[in-house]
Specification:
single chain, 7 helices, 14 strands
Length: 291
């Protein structure tokens, strides 16, 4: 428990680490420490997680080997630099491009949205739920396959989410809970225990909030059972979690009455322009004093 005191070592040593819990963040932290370590750092996972960090390091010119469930690199190399001596940023003229995200387009009534440079992940659950998503201009950008997505409204259906897909989409579950809340039928989430140790206990926060909005949802130790229906209005608490806050904002777009989301200053950690961007897409979000 915090507070923690960490004393820096004079010299880091590479390690072989097997992650007990699927976590792309933990994996990335160890790999980044390995850049400054003597010898090889080898990270293995029981369940493969997202490989964005590995691809980014490769794009920056760092020698790294990776495959689903394993990544390894050695320290002592240098990140590639451009002609001005700056660290290369995704090979796009010195600009680091942030990938787009689906968010509201999947579930919004009568919505049609275009998302540029979204990660190209054909197995995303959106397709399994019946969303109408068309991938355009598939390409490679900074070592990552990306595509522009044309998302049109379609009636979503509840599904039993394959456990094998959970680690790769763990951060998308708050918005998926909202999509499931307005889908036809029941959606079952299993194998997502990691959600309980994010910025908040996202299973508990989303379950409590959606229940407040009239959703029949059963919280389980590693997920939830969500019965689709109609979202009502109400006041929900994001518990200081930026992803939960933005997901509840999407729920407000779909609800019969207004939704008030408290503790939203946290959204600035990942999407400082969220309110303006959402309103430009047709939302009616008013930022209230005090977050």
């Amino acid at each position: 428990m915090p507070p923690l005191r960490i004393g820096g070592a004079a010299s880091l040593r590479g390690i072989q680490y097997t992650a007990p819990v699927a976590s792309a963040q933990v994996k990335s932290a160890i790999l980044l420490a390995g850049l400054y370590a003597r010898g090889e750092t080898d990270v293995r996972e029981v369940h493969p997680t997202r490989d964005y960090t590995e691809r980014m390091l490769a794009a920056f010119g760092w020698p790294i080997e990776f495959e689903p469930g394993r990544a390894r690199l050695s320290g002592g190399h240098r990140l590639a630099r451009d002609r001005r001596g700056r660290t290369r940023r995704f090979l796009l003229g010195g600009v680091l491009h942030r990938c787009g995200d689906l968010a509201a387009g999947l579930a919004a009534v009568a919505a049609r949205c275009r998302f540029e440079s979204a990660p190209h992940r054909p197995a995303r659950c959106a397709a399994l739920m019946g969303a109408d998503i068309r991938e355009l201009n598939v390409r490679e950008q900074g070592g990552e396959r990306v595509a522009d997505l044309d998302v049109r409204h379609a009636g979503l259906r509840g599904i039993d989410i394959p456990v094998a897909l959970v680690p790769d989409m763990i951060d998308e579950f708050p918005i998926l809970f909202v999509a499931a809340a307005v889908a036809t039928g029941t959606t079952t989430v299993r194998g997502a225990t990691e959600l309980r140790v994010k910025e908040s206990d996202r299973i508990a926060v989303m379950a409590k909030g959606l229940a407040t909005l009239g959703v029949r949802i059963e919280e389980t130790p590693d997920g939830a059972i969500i019965h689709g229906g109609v979202l009502q209005g109400g006041s929900v608490d994001s518990a200081g979690d930026h992803r939960c806050a933005m997901s509840f904002a999407v729920a407000g777009l779909l609800a019969r009455d207004g939704v008030r989301v408290s503790d939203c200053a946290n959204v600035a950690t990942s999407f400082p322009g969220f309110v303006d961007s959402a309103n430009a897409c047709g939302f009616r979000i008013a930022a209230l004093e005090g977050g």
